[in-house]
Design goal:
This protein is an alpha/beta fold and 362 residues long. It has 2 domains: 233 residues, Alpha-Beta Barrel (TIM Barrel), CATH 3.20.20; 96 residues, no CATH class. Helix content is 30%, strand content 22%. It has 11 helices and 17 strands. Strands 1, 10, 11, 12, 13, 14, 15, 16 and 17 form a 9-stranded mixed sheet that branches. Strands 4-3-2-9-8-7-6-5 form an 8-stranded parallel sheet, with helices on one face. Helix 4 packs parallel to helix 5 and helix 7 packs parallel to helix 9. The longest helix has 19 residues. The chain is globular. 40% of the residues are buried.
């Protein structure tokens, strides 16, 4: 039986409201890659969110459920001219770019669109994606084509793990330096990307203070607003859907090892090697008997609990999670993992022609 992803409507609403409160005055564009299921997209659209897409398929999914093209932005660089032309023809009017060649494609195929220069951050944060224009490349481009700064409407960046205040301050300093140079608009856009969290997994909660992080965001953006009259956008994904999603699946096999137990599940989802896991809030048997609690884990109240490693039934994915449980699950039991609404179903594959997880919302 395929795994099931069940989204709780009330939790979705609560987490949208929570992030809006933490990022006041910022237009939120949900990053569809976190979960592009039409049921979830429709619920978020009902709360007035915009959407950030990176493919024709994500764009179509939103248009098919009635989202207006004016509420969709394309935040990913590395686009070919065909995708730019297609999205522009269907109404998209805001695109990020990170190289002179893509800027030229936007001028040609999306002439009246908003053009946001995505700046590089990987030299400041090695865990973030390598796309983005470096300061040296920008200097060389401006020197070669002097008028380009008048053809840019704003700046964007993306930090993959955006809960570290000192790092964010350094990136905002870089973004502010580029905003200082723009010539084409009196009210530029600053897109502060995604990577935000409403909760942190145990190892991060011990090191980082989310409330301090969001205070830093508000304070630093206030300074930039005073200098530039900027409009601020953000592209949260995980923070909006993570807590709302629960995964239900059955135990296929249990293997005892020297210091831990290996439990195989029918998942067809998983974490890729090096991926950053969600903060599972609880594991239960059929939603009733508790086996794991994030709160207890954070307090260190795990005592002599057995360590259980959950794995997918195939070798495609890295181990799913390693957790201290009240007891070892049994073959055939229906387990529910709470807090897995982000980057789960979207990591499904057709390896061994397995079925994708079923998705519902309640």
């Amino acid at each position: 039986m395929p795994a099931r992803l069940i989204y709780d409507r009330a939790t979705l609403r609560a987490d949208v409201a929570a992030l809006q409160a933490r990022l006041p005055g910022i237009r939120l564009f949900y990053a569809a890659k976190a979960c592009a299921e039409p049921l979830v997209l429709g619920e978020l659209a009902a709360h007035g969110l915009g959407f950030e897409v990176a493919s024709a398929e994500e764009n179509k999914a939103l248009l098919d459920i009635g989202v207006g093209a004016q509420d969709i932005i394309c935040g990913l660089p590395m686009k070919g001219p065909d995708l730019i032309a297609d999205m522009y023809a269907k109404g998209c009017r805001a695109f990020a770019f990170d190289c002179p060649e893509e800027h030229a494609d936007l001028l040609c195929h999306a002439p009246s669109a908003v053009r946001l220069l995505r700046i590089a951050v990987q030299d400041l944060d090695s865990t973030s994606i390598g796309w983005g224009m470096s300061p040296d490349t920008l200097d060389a481009w401006v020197a070669e084509s002097g008028g380009v700064l008048a053809q840019i409407d704003g700046v964007s960046f993306h930090l993959s793990r955006n809960y570290r205040p000192k790092l964010l301050e350094r990136v905002l300093d870089r973004a502010g330096a580029v905003l200082d140079r723009l010539q084409g608009t009196t009210s530029p856009i600053l897109n502060i990307g995604g990577g935000y969290r409403n909760t942190l997994p145990p190892h991060l909660a011990l090191k980082f203070d989310l409330e301090r992080f969001y205070r830093t965001v508000t304070e630093r953006l206030g300074c930039l607003r005073a200098r530039h009259s900027i409009r601020v956008w953000a592209e949260p994904g995980r923070a909006l859907v993570e807590r709302a999603g629960s995964l239900q699946t059955r135990v296929l096999q249990v293997r005892a090892a020297a210091h831990e137990h290996v439990v195989a599940l029918e998942l067809n989802i998983g974490t890729k090697p090096g991926a950053h896991p969600s903060a599972i809030s609880a594991v239960t048997v059929a939603g009733r008997e508790p086996l794991y609690s994030l709160d207890a884990h954070l307090r260190g109240d795990t005592g002599e609990m057995p360590t259980v490693v959950f794995v997918d039934a195939t070798c495609e994915f890295a181990p799913f999670y390693r957790l201290p449980l009240c007891r070892v699950p049994r073959v055939g039991e229906l387990l529910e993992f709470q807090g897995l609404g982000a980057y789960t179903g979207c990591l499904s594959s057709r390896f061994h022609r397995r079925a994708f997880p079923n998705v519902t919302i309640a």
